[in-house]
Specification:
Strand content of chain A: 15-25%
Helix content of chain B: 40-55%
Strand order of the largest sheet of chain A: 2-15-14-18-16-17
Shape of chain B: globular
Number of helices of chain A: 13
Largest sheet of chain B: 3 strands, mixed
Structural class of chain B: mainly alpha
Structural class of chain A: alpha/beta
Shape of chain A: globular
CATH superfamily of the largest domain in chain A: NADH-ubiquinone oxidoreductase 51kDa subunit
Oligomer: heterodimer
Order of helices and strands of chain B: EHHHHHHHEEEHHHHHHHHHH
CATH class of the largest domain in chain A: Alpha Beta
Radius of gyration of chain B: 25 Å
Strand content of chain B: under 5%
Helix content of chain A: 25-40%
Largest sheet of chain A: 6 strands, mixed
Number of domains of chain B: 2
Chain lengths: ~425, ~400
Amino acid sequence: MGLLTQLRGFDGGMILPAPRRDSASGPIQVLAAPPVLRVPLTQGPEPPVRPVVTAGQAVKPGDLLGDSPDGTGRVHSPAAGTVVGPVEVDTPYRRRVPAIEIRTAPEGQTEPVGALRRDRNDRPTLGGLLQEMMELGVDVPDADGLGRAQRVHRVILNGLDADPYQTVCRRTLMDCAEEVVAAAGMLHDVVGAERTDLVVDGARRELVATLSAAARGGPVRVLGVSDRYPQSKPVLLVRTLAGIEVPADRRPLDAGIWVCDVCTALDVRRAWLEGRAATWRTATITGDAVVAPGNYRFAAGCTIRDVIDPIGLVDTPRRIVFGGMWNGHAVRTPDTVLTKRTWCLIVDSRNRPVHRAAIACIRCGDCLEVCPVRLDPRALLEAAERNRPDLAARRHPHACLDCGLCDYVCPSSLPLMRSAHWCREHVPVG
Amino acid sequence: MSLSAESGRVRAAWPRYVEVHDPPFLQRRASEHRTYGWFCAAMLPVIGAGTYLVGYGVLGIYAAAMAGALVASKLCDRFAAAPGAKSMAHAICVGLMLALTLPPTVGWVAPFLGAFAGIAICRSLLGGLGNYLWNPALVGRTVVQLAFSDGLMPLRWSFLGAGHGLTGSLNAASAGLGYRGFDLTYPPPGVEAWSLARPIDWLVGQCGFSVAATQPGPSLLSVFRDCLPPWRDTLWGVVGGGIGETCFLAVVAGGLVLICLRCSRWQLPVAAFGTVALLSAVWPIRIDAGQPAAWCPILAVREGFPVGAALVLFQLTGGGLAAASLLIAPDPASTPLTGRGHLLFGVGLGALTFLARVSGLSPGSAYWAVLAMNTLVPLIDRVTRRQVFGTSR
């Protein structure tokens, strides 16, 4: 049994109800790439990169599809096939994103798992690793800050899932415990940290035990913490583990702490050892309308329909949520293309009447009680309703983590989350 | 294991578009109706206890108060309240809160007008639910107290005698006996009810709550032995008082329901009870006849009877403090926002209640204290504001 710490950590937050159907009951399954992939040239809200392939060109897995002058945001081909040409697609983050359409070859529809090209104990330099990750299209969190000559004394490997619907981190830890610990050890050595913690939900005792056994004798320490939502947010992990409250205009890295999630750590290790470009993604796919909720690995460039159809639909989907039930966002059409930055997809057959008509605040104070950053959501709502950014500025809206708990608990169904968003948009940071 | 589209598991068709709305996509099952509905449900034990102790006639008082609140809500909210700030559940709750403080002989006009005034003045005119500062039930009670001073604050409050619960008549009441030797004895033939002062009024009236007091008066022991009922009667509520405030056990049951359902916070009643207990334990009082007042009466034991402890217990259970701090004050709209705020509110409520009792303002001192603390709520909210995560201010 590893070191189990049940720390109170941050203020507020709450243990969320578990979904009716557990999506972590089976191992991660791999979905074959569909006959046509439309690989978007940007993964998130950033501007797209320039395409470097032409129509009719044959591509192998890992071939470069798009590049930018500074080398960031590179896009690679997830499968073998032929380039059909440039198209425009919607991603969950942006509408009308340029993409490359690829007709996949029948034999190239699975994820390319390469042979090891390096020794397992090889340790790159930090600069070398970051350069190679950029070339292979792996999004390393805070890569620019890590690259600068900043002393990182502590690495926190985040093994907590964002909310109870998402189980991809937990399932990854269950399926690849040894590999994750090895990845954590590699990052520990590369960054030159004094301490590396692998943080998991302390209530999963078996998982903590498995990981502790895998980590025995190594530099990585496994910590079980209370998974009170939204503990998985990096600033709250830093608060719980190090007792530091990072201001909204700073990053944990400024305090010498680097927070990285386990899925990215795994991608980094695989990319380094095998030279595998980040083109496939594991995400939780769940919801009422899905036959078998679980964690699935699919190629970036699949549409939601491509991903769900092999899993099967029980009922007509009425709602598609990208991200999480508490702070994700709704997607309009099943033809939306998924990028590498996908964590969780919830397809429900009921579009529950979530926001009843808002009534007056009855001053119950529940929103203040659950807020993990001690904001007064009522004050932000008032500022937004009166269109007064100056009132909002006094209440530090940028501390908001967008967790959605205030909205979730509000008995009056007030649009607290939306008003906090308005305040963040209208108040300059800092 | 690998899955592909050919495995034929598709059983339903995709719509072209699905509806989109803002996160979060789940909401906790909570609503203002639910909150105030539970407040109403928490009144059921006291309504039940009152019906047994004072007769089924009290149901008319509750009904009149509810009717007044609903009529006011229908009439006045239309003109005054902000959209979305009208609530039937809240109006019913206000009516019940008002009624439980009233004497059983009050008739039906006073509860109706009181509830009407509470909703009309305090809720509708101030902009509706959530915008008022003072508890509407207690504002209504104040209005009634000004209008019907005799009917609302009688010196003697009626309740049914043993063996006449539920169906006895308050008209056949006896005032002669006093609480002396009371102890649930059956009343004489022809008498179905007692008409006696509230124990807390008697206690406060008889005791010299003054540091300088050397005025003549009975000793604390004789007050307890000759003037007051046994303490356990205040738990069951077989004493004079408002139709819903006398039965301490019923009030606590209702309050616990609210706290367990997270409709109210434990800090407020705990702080209020703690403050009253502490103050009455140390505040100087004349313990022996003809002697000056002594500090820390809790330690006093006379002739083997712990008079100090009895004094503290009567302060806690003998008046309206329990009903005020467990059922009436926790109305979320007129209390502070945070738990720390509730703690401060409770301390203030307890201290003001005790001071009002000491200074002889006894009838309904806890209710006055609630109104006074309601006024301080904006200040309490400001004082208890927390520093935002990662900021220095």
